[in-house]
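Known limitations

Structure tokens in this collection are predictions and should be treated as such. Users comparing against experimental data should check residue numbering before alignment. To illustrate the layout, the record for Thymidylate kinase is reproduced below. The input appears on top and the generated tokens appear beneath it.
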Amino acid sequence: MGVLIAVEGLDGAGKRTLIERVVGDLRGRGLRVSTMAFPRYRVSVHADLAAEALRGAHGDLAASISGMALLFALDRADARDELSKLLADNDVVLLDRYVASNAAYSAARLGQSADGEIVDWVGELEFGRFALPAPALQVLLDVPVELAAERARKRGELDAERALDVYERDGGLQHRTGAVYRELAERDWGGPWWTYRSDDGPAALAARITEIVGR
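Generated tokens:
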């Protein structure tokens, strides 16, 4: 079985770019690598419903913190068999967001910390009831909130499909989410964490993953 690595961080933190570079490095080391991104827009009806709600559709759905969290959790639950197959066929599976993103954003919306009830509920729901595989490592891409927000804004200007949603437009929410993410990392919530900073470089993360794989 391969190892599951989740890359976490705010919208605009640079998760996709980092993953692309790490994938190239790992494949250069002879490892079999696959990726998956959550939410699975245009693949999962639950992810699409959540995205539509964040842009004003479906009445007051977006106002329901647990309702939105459940949609994102159901998206991952539907991907469980595919994840299991990817882990069976590869040495490494890199995820752009995973369960911790649900915990961080839900807690931030409620004004709770990482030891709040909603974080426990998300963990019990996704790792417990839905039996999602635990990550071997969760990587927090910790960048300044202002930088992440500017990147997300520019990305939305270039791609209409990635225009800012209600979460991304809420600067206070982004600050609170970043704080919860750091608390989750400090607590090793859901498995071991590593805080990645820009001066680490993709090669450093690739080396750490290679150590976990044992090659």
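For this record: The first strand starts at residue 3 and ends at 8. Residues 149 and 171 are 8 Å apart (CA to CA). Please report discrepancies through the issue tracker.
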